[in-house]
């Protein structure tokens, strides 16, 4: 089977799907607006076509026509069995305009929660793309429910799980220091400022406790967040570690006393970082963004707090400080939930079943 995937080359989600499907014997070809800067795809033996067009300029008429023409040329050259677009609002629309079938769209989050709300025209474009697809996929039931506003078609659920052998408990969390961890792009949507302010409240409430906030990731708001720690007087208690390779993340999750993810946007449609943390046996505090409410069992594998609420976030963190044994009990429950629902091998098998079923029909 030859699969032409339309998806951003630099995304870790794209990389994981391409690698996993290739390892299962699928001949994967990737089409991306921008080229990959790493050797990842070459090492995996995956052919990549790119247009070197910024995703933000793709809506310019000339750029879009050029991209569509190039995609059609790639389809004629590669002769795929299936075209699978990730993100309905960009790659999905491009795939729909190509006229190729069978055609699959996987929705990601922003394309459903934000894109159609920008304008009436964007809603029409989203509806058009979804209408042209032969099969629609969503990583979560809550996002599929949101997408139902724009299509009458049903969705198959294909979670974006984790490698439970890689993301596994190591029992290396410090007993002397309470470490709060976060792994996210440093963008306003992910509520890192809410976390920092909540951490400040925790510091004020525990003057004799050794506390550390460890933030992993990079992004446009990093300088702003670093300045906020200075303003609050907690710079010496906050570490900004930058971007860490995915394979190195398990040791960091294992070093956390608790992971905190308080996204303020519902475009957080699945919450894979919470799954990664839980798989390592580390409990989580999350906001009530849609994706987290499906992944986390409130009071069992973690604590869910209202979005944009630093006081409730601080109180949830304090719960783990006051009850150290919760890390073990909730951590074990989280690990069991991931093994049951979000094991990456099972998720890849589900995707393969979707492909095979579509080809048979």
Number of domains: 2
Question: What is the H/E order?
Answer: EHEHEHEHEHHHEHEEHEHEHEHEHEHHH
Based on DSSP secondary structure assignment, what is the total number of beta strands?
13
Strand order of the largest sheet: 3-2-1-4-5-6-7
Q: Please, what is the CATH homologous superfamily of the largest domain?
A: Glycogen Phosphorylase B
Based on helices, strands and strand pairing, what is the structural class?
alpha/beta
Give a description of the structure.
The model has no long low-confidence stretch (mean pLDDT 93). It is built from 16 helices and 13 strands. It has helices at residues 12-23, 40-44, 61-78, 88-98, 110-113, 115-118, 120-132, 141-147, 192-205, 222-232, 249-255, 272-279, 290-295, 310-322, 326-341, 344-360, and strands at residues 2-6, 27-32, 47-50, 82-86, 103-107, 135-138, 156-157, 178-183, 211-216, 238-242, 258-261, 284-287, 302-305. Helix 13 links the parallel strand 12 (284-287) and strand 13. The chain starts with a strand and ends with a helix. The chain has a 7-stranded parallel sheet with strand order 3-2-1-4-5-6-7, sandwiched between helices. A 6-stranded parallel sheet has the order 10-9-8-11-12-13, with helices on both faces. It is α/β, with parallel strands linked by helices and 361 residues long. The protein has 2 domains: 2-161 and 343-360, Glycogen Phosphorylase B (Rossmann fold), CATH 3.40.50.2000; 178-341, Rossmann fold, CATH 3.40.50. The radius of gyration is 21 Å and the shape is elongated.
